[in-house]
């Protein structure tokens, strides 16, 4: 089995940040398809001539049809410290999305309560009193318009599964290509959602670290 080389965005003794292509899994599932963990592990094994199993710590995930910055830890210490940052919500995550529909304000904030159906892997907006529902806050800013579509910069304040996809869709703003959440457009295995920037505290240097993945062509706004 041939494993592709990763697009490395940042690397040191504790971290490896790559640009995940749309259509590739972060971690393994029932399909058995090659994952970004497999790709990162193979890259590190060859580059550093490491025999046996190579540690690749997963500290967050991107949905399969989403592209952009994916951060791995190279040590257990870094994995624990980064996972804690994601859990506490101190990591800043900036995405770009292309959506159908219109908004009244050029920037704003959406607040919803989300509930995940784990059997169907679908998330819904529900009433706040719904058992298991989680409060979710999403900030957005219009950065361009093209061919009747909006280009948005979006920042999830909370980190819920499918949060950006369902919060935008629930307001008549489905992400182009996201047929799971209301889009009528098909884009060949990807949705136009891209994880552009991650900002976090470096796990050992204790200084702000920022990693950015350049925008694919379909995200270039007028």
Task: Explain what the structure shows.
This protein is of the alpha+beta class. The protein is built from 3 helices and 11 strands. The chain has one domain (7-215): Pseudouridine synthase, CATH 3.30.2350. 14% of the residues lie in helices and 36% in strands. A hairpin with a 2-residue loop joins strand 8 and strand 9 (149-156).
Features:
Pseudouridine synthase; about 35% strand; about 220 residues; 11 strands; alpha+beta
Helix-strand blueprint:
Elements: E1 7-11, E2 15-20, H1 36-47, E3 57-58, E4 67-73, H2 76-88, E5 92-99, E6 107-117, E7 122-126, E8 134-146, E9 149-156, H3 163-169, E10 193-201, E11 208-212
Parallel strand pairs: 4-10
Antiparallel strand pairs: 1-2, 2-4, 3-4, 5-9, 5-10, 6-7, 6-8, 8-9, 10-11
């Amino acid at each position: 089995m041939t494993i592709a080389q990763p697009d490395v965005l940042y690397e040191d003794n504790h971290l490896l940040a790559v640009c995940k292509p749309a259509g590739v899994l972060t971690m393994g599932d029932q399909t058995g398809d090659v994952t970004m963990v497999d790709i990162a592990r193979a890259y590190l094994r060859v580059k550093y001539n490491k025999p046996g199993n190579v540690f690749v710590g997963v500290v967050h995930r991107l949905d399969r049809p989403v592209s952009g910055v994916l951060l791995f830890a190279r040590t257990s210490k870094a994995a624990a410290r980064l996972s804690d940052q994601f859990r506490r919500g101190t990591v800043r995550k900036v995405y770009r999305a292309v959506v159908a529909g219109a908004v009244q304000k050029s920037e704003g904030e959406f607040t919803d309560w989300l509930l995940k159906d784990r059997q169907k892997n679908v998330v819904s907006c529900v009433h706040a009193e719904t058992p298991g529902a989680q409060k979710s806050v999403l900030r957005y800013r219009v950065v361009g318009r093209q061919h009747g579509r909006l280009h948005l910069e979006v920042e999830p304040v909370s980190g819920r599964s499918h949060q950006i996809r369902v919060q935008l869709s629930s307001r008549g703003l489905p992400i182009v290509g996201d047929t799971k959440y209301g889009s009528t457009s098909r884009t060949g295995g990807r949705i136009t959602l891209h994880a552009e920037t991650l900002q976090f505290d470096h796990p050992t240097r204790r200084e702000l670290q920022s990693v950015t993945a350049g925008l694919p062509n379909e995200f270039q706004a007028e």
